[in-house]
Design a protein that fits this description.
This protein is α+β, with helices and mostly antiparallel strands and 179 residues long. It contains 3 helices and 8 strands.
């Protein structure tokens, strides 16, 4: 007895397997899915890497507020050295984290320095330079502060930059995840 498909399709299709057209269609479908999925996955990875900056800046905020509360009269967010803020990054970091220290005669910070343990990568983007962006700069005074983070999350020459201030307002003026 002949199989059912042979009786319907005829004897020329009795060898089985795929035709060249079917194979090309499958390859085209896989290529379209990859073209959609790979960039979305890359953006997802970059966004997840930015969590390091957000979490660490939140911890710096907490440490800076604690420093301000514990500092001698008059209370100030501007320590003599960055180490007085008592925050250190944990593990290997993609970002360098910056704070201002070295109070001048009128109570403003005079030196912007990285926290010990921050990234020291210089290529492809140099994170050893304090982050600055239009309207943002790392600073500390007796009444407030802005801390910063600079890192490379996708291997290009653009540094991802984040800032947090004494009002716990976090900003990402240079977003390397979507460049």
């Amino acid at each position: 007895m002949r199989p059912y498909y042979r009786s319907i399709l005829g004897s020329q299709f009795s060898h089985g397997g795929f035709t060249l057209i079917e194979l090309i269609i499958v390859i085209a479908i896989v290529a379209v899915l990859a073209a959609i999925a790979i960039p979305a996955f890359s953006r997802y990875q970059a966004t997840s890497k930015q969590a390091e900056a957000k979490v660490s800046l939140g911890a710096i905020f907490t440490a800076a507020v604690a420093y301000e509360v514990e500092s001698q009269n008059p209370s100030s967010y501007a320590p003599t050295t960055v180490n007085e803020v008592r925050w250190l990054p944990v593990g290997g970091t993609r970002y360098s984290f910056w704070y201002a220290a070295g109070v001048d005669a009128i109570g403003n910070s005079s030196t912007v320095a990285p926290f010990t343990g921050s990234s020291t990568a210089t290529a492809p983007c140099n994170v050893t330079v304090a982050p600055t962006a239009s309207g943002f700069a790392v600073a500390a005074t007796s009444t407030g502060f802005t801390a910063g983070a600079s890192g490379n999350i996708d291997g290009d020459s653009t540094c991802d930059q984040w800032f947090i201030n004494d009002h716990r307002s976090i900003s990402n003026p240079i977003n390397d995840a979507f460049q």
